[in-house]
Structures
1.
Amino acid sequence: MSNQQQRMHAWWQTRAPRARIMLKAMLAAVAAVVAWYAVVVPSRHWRSSAQARDDIAAETLLDARGVQRNRAVAVGRGCARSHHAAYTRGRHRHHQPRPWSHRWA
């Protein structure tokens, strides 16, 4: 052992058993506080920031799905109207419309 370790060991042995127990308890309490501030507090912060990012991503996804759905409906209506116009092109005005043609009007 080095000189420093020998002195620390001698100092520790000169303490009463009761004082050793109190010093161990105090060191355990200090270690618990350090662990709390070094591990638990940052992990809570990381969790809350991850939850915020997840909320933003979910909202963005819902917005994108809504836009996609609106585009699909608009494209579907546009195709149906153009199909109806191509189908009725060249027919006379007095032609009786088909029963399903009111859907695209």
2.
Amino acid sequence: MIAVHLESGRVSVRRENLPRLAPGFARIHLLEGGICSTDLQLQRGYYGFSGTPGHEFVGEVVDAEDRDWVGKRVAGEINLACGRCGWCARGLGRHCPRRTVLGIVKHPGAFREFLTLPVRNLHPVPPAIPNQHAVFIEPVAAACEILDQLKIAKGQRVAVLGDGKLGLLIAQVLHVHGASVHLFGRHRHKMRIVEKMGVATGIVPKKPGRAWPIVVESTGSSGGLRAAIAMCEPRDAVVMKSTVHGLVSVDTAPVIVNEITLVGSRCGRFEPAIHLLASGKVRVGGLISEEFPLERAPAAAAGKLKWHMLRRTAVVFAALLLTSCSVKKYAIHTLGDALAASGATFASDDDPDLIRAAVPFSLKLIETLLAENPRQQGLLLAAARGFTQYAFAFVQEDADEAQDTDRAAAAALRARAAKLYFRARNYGLRGLEVKHPDFAARLEAHPKEAAKELKKSEVPVMYWTALSWAAALAASHDM
């Protein structure tokens, strides 16, 4: 079977033997798996993890001692408790000191063709929940855990910080419960998902006041907890949902002076989560950004450019200015391939201002190198991808945020985004024409026939060309 492997931040696909079926365990064929912020933190070094990641999944049982389980579609609780200690006896197996955790601590994760879990961890998935939605059972359960930890009355005012997947799920769960929820984030298009359900939203305030009796921190960033503490009313509670690699620095004085209760919150019961998804009360369709097979996991992971690579690129660029012509061409070719293989020009990072400042340098570096070697395919791919993602992640995002307050500014930003998308498209077309002269003309006249000329290795260039072209037309239409 094939399995995704993560080690020292690098993702690969390996061939492995089927996992051994221990007593009391079931062997499960993976149907769908979900990537969450914890998986990204593992890639950055959280827990010093090495092995197969993945803990959000839906699968089909193919083997178990209890044959009644075979053929059932299941989701699984991720904590594997010993079942013998005092914590387990008290029903707190999630905190068993001997526990392993699927895809996180000493138990191979779900990003493999076949995985194993104890039968006692499994929950049948009802037909009303499709595979794509069943992947969300585990994070919805984590959102429901808040209701088991705190007494939240109907109409209780709750602020949720963070518009990532978990924040959007928490906002929905608390809203369905009857709380008066306000979701604070930075991305208008994400917050619109819960706005349709009646959840109030807003941009994270720069100077938050102590206005909220309950604040749920789910930003996934090191600064989220500080912001949550600053927003919490005296003698009330902050729920901490983010797991972040590295130490988080927090001034404890406001916590002590204002007598704020900090509540750590992790996994939750699956039963209420399954009910919410089966009933359609929690909606997750809009939270799926992309799908790909296990074999493409390394390429998907490469879409998160590590910023230390950007620093290395700067050093190489300085060296190019000093080398001879032949060495320069070789270095440009090598660097171009490295930039293409590195994936996107953006990364998950807890400092968006740093990313915003750094990415233009990377893009201009690519263009400078292209001036030396205009037909280097790796650089052309990196340019097509980089300008597309920069336009989407920053320029178009700024336009969405400005729409409600300054429509003229929003229109100007969309116009700029369209120009950047067209710029990306042109680089993509240049990349395709390296081996297919006049390909752009044939693509416009007879797209299906032109596409048949491409080889498998050229699909990434074609993908970013098509995506940037479509985005440019959409942005132009919105102006």
3.
Amino acid sequence: MEKTRYLFLNSQLPILNYPITNSQLPITFFPTCMDLTIECQKRPENSKPKALRRSGLIPANLYGHKGTESISLTIDAKTAERLLKKGSVNNTLIDLKITDIPWQGKTLLREVQIHPAKRTPFHLSFFAVAGHGPTTVEVPLRFVGDAIGVKQEGGMLDTVFNQLQVSCEPENIPEAIEVDVSNMKVGDSLHIHELPLPKGVTVLDNAEQIAVSILPPQITPEKEAELDAAQAETGATSETETQTESEAS
């Protein structure tokens, strides 16, 4: 998995740069496939990012528009914050409107940079998906139901994967892949190829890997000490009874 990269300002404070493979964002994200409409403007030539941010604008880029061409944009800071509360990196279709070109199309939010001190958006990157065919996204796994192995047998649910990398058309991006674990018992496991996938969605992760399993009950040190004490007491009782029987005979 790609590691978090760091950028530095004149103040030497690192700007957290979150790649599309990293979902640990400091702002709460709710993965969803809902459509969002965001308005932005083309960034003025020779404009300075610092000056833009002081005026309440967040620098952004749109990639994938007309081949390899990219467009420098600005987005209102409050609009960017609302976007990050409703959308999710690499999982939400965003209807992006560039009001002064004009241009409008479906995009994915590919990358977010967050200011480490203010915890506010610092830079956003969008990818235009129209006309590019299937796209690769990260989709969360949603485990539902009370597993028999946990509820009745005292086991523990072990989720090896919390999200999957999938390929699908932009309009088919699922909110999540739901996995019912209700009938799973201790020792049971589900591999990736056994998970129910929405139509048109292909998993890119290794299909033979285990996605979720039910582990046996864990014995805590305290419980282990209790069992050892009980076993020792049972052994002592048996030894006493044997000795008593020998003396009686």
